[in-house]
Amino acid sequence: ERMAMRTQKELVILHKEGCERPNNTVTWLNMRNWISSHHHILCNKRMFSRRSQYRINELYSKVLMSEPNIHSDFSRLARWLTGTSVGLVLGGGGARGASHVGMVKAIQEAGIPIDMVGGVSIGAFMGALWCTERNVTTMTQKAREWSKKMTQWWRQLLDLTYPATSMFKGSYFNQTIYSTFGDTYIEDLWLPYFTITTDITASVMRIHTHGSLWRYIRGSMSLSGYMPPLCDPTDGHLLLDGGYVNNLPADVMKRCGAKYILAIDVGSQDDMDLTNYGDDLSGWWLLLKRLPFTSPVKVPNLPDIQSRLAYVSCVRQLEEVKNSDYCEYIRPPIDKYTTLQFGSFDEIKDVGYNHGKTFFTGMMKGGAYPPFLRSPDMQVSRIESRKSTTTQSTSYTFTDLAQMVCKVQRKPYSGASDSSDDDYEADEEDTQEVGYASEPSGNILDSNHSPLMRRRTGGSLSLSENELESESEFYSRTSRMPQ
């Protein structure tokens, strides 16, 4: 029982290519409260077809000759199990968050995988879009549509209310977020995801990894004074913008298990050269100062003040992120854009893309490859070494299996029977040896097809005391077997 409590249990949910996005994941997890975490894996239809052991060996022997696709879900699962996941953290900053879309595009073009995503405020919105779609074009389209809705001031005027708690009721803002994500739950996202909110009921930072997606995004984007706090549907606590406590949660991403982290900061930079207007300030005077024949003044408006407040309590944390060795801190040049300048979406997006492309291109040319990337020379040498050791190696780890499976080709190989779209397709040859492509043996390239020794094909991976004794007896017997 003690071992059962310490053992980490991962739920892997397989999805066929071409399927809709995951749903009803909460039902699976509620029936398995012993699960540590879950993973949605998109795999080839061949994974669900019957194959003889001979065909499996032949298939994987050819797959082994190619470099694995580091962007596949199986590679993502392998990195998680080996503790080498890549996390993407998107900070808050209002309309400046449009640069997140361009940065994601630059990251993809640089060949960097994204295994986990965390975000705050506008970063929570953009990060959830990527976890939902995993397609830059669709992400850009939906982000542009939402930004366009935020420029429709006449709709927002209809949402005005008596400012007892906030200027707006929040109905229209809720509608814009709900129309983007619908009733999706965080558990149904393709990638692991979290967002940060400020719990003003308990005066703590809240990390949300499950629950209603649109509601917690709304809570993480709720600026004080503009939107009313969101009532948490689980405990009724009041939630506000997460930027008030942690506007770039790279430290949270590290605690979630990511080894390599890209942190994109789009927060406002404090302008120290402000106008000294005295003991009081008239809004009408500021309005007159906007006329062309008057001298301009530098006084922060209400959104800028809210944005500055978000940094007061997390300046020290932000400096730690900048100086950390586990995080790659990136800040696009978006200081000239204001917090509510959503009408400049495409311009800000292009600024983020150009900066990201220049950043990663310079890193590659300078030879400073990120730890999660390999240079072309390293990739070639790895393939050559793999070819030279193919005939000698007879034991493979799960990481090797994941890399092989993620590169299964769709076209049938010469000499192999054609695969159909049926869920269970029996092999015409070698019908006595039937197995599944997801369960190859440890010596998949061994030409001598000895019977597989399988133990504990079902049940929990935790072992009781009696099972531990049987395990030791099994290993003592297998160690004496002739090689």
UniProtKB/TrEMBL annotation:
Pfam families: NTE_Ploop, Patatin. GO terms for biological process: lipid catabolic process; phosphatidylcholine metabolic process. The active site is at residues 121, 241. A motif (GXSXG) lies at residues 119-123. Belongs to the NTE family. This is lysophospholipase. Residues 88-254 form the PNPLA domain. The keyword Transport does not apply. Its EC number is 3.1.1.5. One of its GO terms (molecular function) is phosphatidylcholine lysophospholipase activity. It is a single-pass membrane protein. Residues 419-432 have a biased composition (Acidic residues). Its main location: membrane. A motif (GXGXXG) lies at residues 92-97. One of its GO terms (cellular component) is endoplasmic reticulum. Keywords: Hydrolase, Lipid degradation, Lipid metabolism, Membrane, Transmembrane, Transmembrane helix. The keyword Acyltransferase does not apply. Residues 412-483 are annotated as: Disordered. A motif (DGA/G) lies at residues 241-243. SUPFAM superfamilies: FabD/lysophospholipase-like. It is found in: Membrane. Residues 440-450 have a biased composition (Polar residues).
